[in-house]
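Entry: Histidinol dehydrogenase
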Amino acid sequence: MNIIKNPVAATLKRTIEQGTQEQLLAVVNIIADVRRKGDEALFSLTEKFDAVKLNQLRVTEEEITTAYNELGADMLEIIREAARNIKDYHARQKRESWITTDENGTILGQKITPLDSVGVYVPGGLAAYPSSVLMNVIPALVAGVKRIVMVSPPQKDGKLPAGVVVAASELGVQEMYKVGGAQAIAALAYGTESIEKVDKIVGPGNIYVALAKREVFGTVAIDMIAGPSEIVVLADETARPEEVAADLLSQAEHDERASSVLVTSSISLANEVKAEVFKQLETLPRKEIASKSIENYGAIYITDTLNEAVELVNELAPEHLEIITEDPMALVGKIRHAGAIFLGRYSSEPIGDYFAGPNHVLPTNGTARFSSPLNVDEFTKKSSIISYSKQAMLENGHKVAAFARLEGLEAHARAVEYRLEETK
């Protein structure tokens, strides 16, 4: 983790999910296999990649009951409370259809319609991510999507993690399938005997999932191609080094390619945080992963002023931004590019990951310059409504015909003029 003083410009060292030619070829072959063989391919590929031999793909009622028993009442209530917070937040994003009328009889509007079906990919295998279930399913529910399908890689026992199953069940997800990887994406995009195809696929995954989503885009919609997690902490001398270090490591432990960066105007804070990072690493269970992340993608930038630090943050356009300064609200208006902004020492990034309410599916790799967190709009589509009256046609038809001829489209012009003739 290098300390860089007075940087002219700053960049996060990032890993773009392009994949190798071998990985891309493997994904293309998997997709083709699923399209040809359907469920047969899903069973064989699950056995090959997950070392699990399944006799059915769909999660059963018995497995759901078992999951509730394994999870326990305390954790169930935490999931339910988190779900309420996330739903309340996303309900505020919902937009309604609208209509406007003019005195000449013109009617214009926009009809907002939820997607018919959505596939949610939940990472799994060696880990469990019920938070991914909540963050991807709830905005779709708020939008009004009727059919939500969840897919996730099975564990070695042939089941999905209890937390994942319970989270999906609590949200009313009727279709849960024990299949992951590129083969799951192919099944959602093209359908098999067991899994009916969907209109959009959302949710994070490994490089094979990312490449598969990119390959099927166009056949279905996708949310984004997410890269490794990243955090920037913007802090001044009032920040506590042990808290800043812990926040940096909270992202570093995700992935050895994750980026953890401190931007500060305080040299003493920079030195103290660096020392604290390496101290805390020693007792971190995921030390090996976090150490590689810090070594290869961690950095500390020192600027002369806090305003310069803000500009540096805008250049970085991070996925997560924490502002831990004496007056965070004084700076938030100056931030132009960030996926999620956490204000003050008590707003540690994991608060947003699990519980506060805003979505944790965020733009990575600098795409916060032009992208937004996953939201309700991602699960709707919009249709324009246009109704011209006779009076409106008389007032504007000749203008439309002139515009059409300007573009050399005579049939367009005549389509309007036939109606003008009729109205005389």
